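ESCALATION

Customer reports they have been waiting on this structure for their group meeting. Please prioritize. Original submission:
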Amino acid sequence: MNDKDYYIIKVKRFRVIALILLLTASHVYAQPRLRVPEIYFGVHGGVTASSIMFQPAVENMRPITQACVLGGNGGFVFRYAGHKYCAVQVELNYMHRGWAEKSDAGRYSRELHYIEMPVLMNINFGSRLCRGFFNLGPQIGYCLYDNKGTGTQLSTITTQYATPITHPFDWGLAAGLGFYLRTRKAGLYQLEARFSYSFGGIFGTSLTDHFNMASPMDLSLNLAWLWEFKKTRKHKNSIYNENKL
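Update from on-call: job pushed to the front of the queue and completed.
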């Protein structure tokens, strides 16, 4: 891949993200508005299976199940709902990433620790007490720590072992699917499965570099606990009055 092809791919990725966000924003604009917005704060955490998509491919990373590193994630959640079926959800998270290689000769893994901020459009559906939802939006992050790798170096290509993280800044797209339960006094409980993919890369991708692509990707399962900042359902002008608990 030459530099021209690389930048063409970057431009196409930007166009895809811009189109997705434009369509999502159009859908939100068409939704009925709440007379009194709902505001939630909370925390969430869970488990993450992460890997790196390398091009050219790295030996001993197939199947994908043996190329994953298991870790944890957690952080803070803010959600603002100004429409009946849509909300904006912003998070500040810690994320444990990395990749693994495995063969009969041994195992190698490298762990990366990120701080990240997703900005997600939350589209929800169902009753007031129990709702399904779909999250979609961009995220940015920064690699705080790299453990430099542990175990046996298995590949004849050693670039992924010896090369430091040259691009600590990360940006990509996240999508999640889940449901939440609303209670009278104990807040809102939410379970979500989320996939995120980085459009950046942890290593350089110029003509002089070995990898054309080195993009992190993650699959996580998270449980959140949110509290309503303002008890909007008690207001007489709330659109949800007919569904009071």
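Sent to customer with the following note: Residues 19 and 227 are 33 Å apart (CA to CA).
Escalation resolved.
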